[in-house]
Amino acid sequence: MSNKTMIATLALGAAIAFSGTAYADKMKAVLDGKSEVPANASAGTGTADIDYDPASKKLSWKLTYSGLSGAATAAHFHGPAEAGKNAGVAVAIPNATSSPAEGSATLTDAQAADLVAGKYYVNIHTAANPGGEIRGQVTK
User: Which band of pLDDT confidence, cut at 50, 70 and 90, is reported for residue 60?
Assistant: First the structure.
């Protein structure tokens, strides 16, 4: 094999290896009590770093938070809803009783459309705030 062929083969292999992540959309949600509906005075804050692959409809996240009034009892992606509106649970975030919580889910076509349209928010629930203590809209 010539050096040119070897370099071309290596370059092609690298392009294929890295192409899977090149198409993932990076999204984020910044969570606080003022974003809840109705707003609350929680000192809690959080961030959800989100990757979404439109080809496979795979949603992946890393949720971190601190300063809640007590232990987190649950966390979810809710939607469809714009900021300032409430909606039901769309995707559960398992193991969110401690921070960080990481996971993934495969979305339906309808869920994918709502996510991309900015109609999902992340909500962390506590015993003192069962409807949600901190919340953040998912944005690109």
Answer: very high
Of 18, 46, 27, 48, nearest in space to 117 by CA: 27
What pTM did the predictor assign? 0.83
DSSP for 5-42, please give it.
HHHHHHHHHHHHHHHHHHTPEEEEEEEEGGGSSS----
How many whole angstroms separate alpha carbon 105 and alpha carbon 120?
14
Is residue 72 within 8 A of residue 124, CB to CB? The reply is yes
Cis peptide, bond prior to residue 54, ω within 30 of zero: no
Q: What is the model's pLDDT at position 33?
A: 98
**Residue 64 corresponds to which tokens in the numbers above?**
């971190």
Query: CA 106 to CA 111: how far, in whole Å?
Result: 9
pLDDT, residue 1, reads 56
Sequence ranges of the domains in the chain = 24-137
Calculate the alpha carbon distances from 20 to 48, 55, 58, 102, 123 in Å.
22, 9, 12, 20, 29
